[in-house]
Amino acid sequence: MMSKPRIPPLGSLRAFEASARLLSFRLAGDELGVTQSAISHRIAELESVLGIKLFERQPRGVSLTDAGTLYYPYMRDAFEKIARGTALISRIGTADDLALETYATFAVRWLIPRLAGFRKVNPSLAIRIGTSQLDWELNIDNCDIGIIHTTRPERMNLHYRLLTKAQMFPVCSPAVAARIDPADARTLSRVPRLALFTSPEDWSIWLEAAGLADNAQAVTLKFDTYLTALQSALDGQGLVVAPDFLVRDDLTAGRLVAPFDISVSQPGAWYLICRKERVGEARIRKFETWLTEQFASHSR
Length: 300
Prior knowledge:
single chain, 300 residues, alpha/beta, Arc Repressor Mutant, subunit A, D-Maltodextrin-Binding Protein, domain 2, 5-stranded mixed sheet, 12 strands
């Protein structure tokens, strides 16, 4: 049976990782709260254990040897994994809340109006919601779950639960809709067009489905989110293409109107995500079950 390779002292490995990343014993000492001399001593200890030189000492800092360059990515990844694992255990240990991150639009226009239903059946579980105004690369290590829209649900460490594949169509206020003939899509030119500069393909996709030419000059206002674009539509400033579930409540209440009986699939889909190893956690499972039931009931 082969003997297990010896792991050098953790303090020496931490000193090496910081020094290799910063290329400075002094800065590594500042980061780790020890002196430059202590860092130098720990590096010397590590080099003695390994039997190989890791740094070239220079008048203004240090540089990595070939061996140090080869060793550094392993130490960097190891300490990153330790940090992620620590954050994960810390989140699991906080069993009285659920940290969720999503888009501000989704939170304001869909999630928050429905959360009272979840709280009614789960009164002891607090929901902590973090939002972003723009499309962002969600860092799942900073939260328990995320709700995202993506065309590529393929990150290997994540569990993806499909929530909906949305349909998109133009909506506007009743006053603006009165200026449009639903039987004639050409009357679209009679009203200002609102668009998202973060999702510029929305209008072109719908116009192609409607058999109309895309006249980009017809766009009068551009926004960074559906939240602001839909508020502009509610205020009677024009027509905007939006996903169906984000406007369903306003359509039901008559605050918005869909003038044309033409819809098109939004590229990609909406998902609840979490780390794969956390799928079985009770609080995540409760919220995932509730969320998927909400989407299923509103799609009927």
